[in-house]
Write a structure and sequence with these properties.
- The chain is α+β, with helices and mostly antiparallel strands.
- It folds into two domains: 57 residues, Leucyl/phenylalanyl-tRNA-protein transferase, N-terminal domain (Alpha-Beta Plaits, 2-Layer Sandwich), CATH 3.30.70; 155 residues, Leucyl/phenylalanyl-tRNA-protein transferase, C-terminal domain (Aminopeptidase), CATH 3.40.630.
- It has seven helices and eleven strands.
- It has a seven-stranded mixed β-sheet, sandwiched between helices. Strands 1-2-4-3 form a four-stranded mixed β-sheet.
- The chain starts with a strand and ends with a helix.
């Protein structure tokens, strides 16, 4: 299948059904708030290395976590009971996203460039992206950030400052999502770490149905 070339003047995307088998749908365009919102509302997201053209992806099978299905291991249950960690929402979005970038750069390389940081901070200011920070005994343990539209959360990246920091953030945030009636966490791509926490594949048809219902329910966070 062809990969569609986008321009910066017109904000549009081809149908997600035209994505290649690996999930690549289009290249080009920009990371404006309006384009990002249109992308996520259609199950599309940007993912590319610094210096490359913007690449837009839409895998046909979606790897998601349903918040009420979050898996908490025996060791994490003991950890949470012992340390009584807590989370804050939007303590400092820019700091959390930058920590995700630094941790990934140090370990395995990152797609989070200056351009991405600026774009998602603008999305945050517009009310469509949030950060989650977990604390243990008053100290920052870890966190994550992502995009919120309606009752759908699209996870982008996580970081840990302490052992179990990112796991703690995801577990406690899943409880927050449940209490606020969110429908899913879109993990975008499979990882063994997320699978161990309850992530699973669903078909594009099921994903799209949940997505379209979820984004209609409410606008901003």
């Amino acid at each position: 299948m062809p990969v569609y070339l986008l321009n910066k003047k017109e904000i549009y995307f081809p149908s997600p059904l035209f994505a290649r088998p690996d999930g690549l749908l289009a290249v080009g365009g920009d990371l404006s708030v309006n384009r990002l919102l249109l992308a996520y509302k259609n199950g599309i997201f940007p993912w590319y290395s610094p210096g490359e053209e913007i690449m837009w992806w839409c895998p046909s099978k979606r790897f998601v976590i349903f918040p009420n299905e979050i898996h908490i291991s025996h060791s994490m249950k003991k950890y949470i009971k012992k340390y009584q960690p807590s989370i804050k929402i939007n303590r400092d979005f820019a700091d959390t996203m930058h920590r995700c970038r630094i941790k990934r750069e140090f370990n395995e390389g990152t797609w989070i460039s200056d351009e991405m940081e600026d774009a998602y901070y603008n999305l945050h200011k517009a009310g469509y992206a949030l950060s989650v920070e977990a604390f243990e005994a008053g100290e920052l343990a870890g966190g994550l950030y992502g995009v919120c539209i309606g009752r759908c959360f699209f996870g982008e990246s996580m970081f840990s400052e302490k052992e179990n920091g990112s796991k703690t953030a995801l577990i406690l945030f899943s409880k927050w999502l449940c209490s606020n009636q969110y429908l899913f966490i879109d993990c975008q791509f499979h990882t063994e770490h997320l699978e161990s926490m309850g992530g699973r594949y669903i078909s594009w048809e099921k994903y799209d149905k949940i997505l379209q219902n979820g984004i209609k329910d409410r606008d901003k966070i």
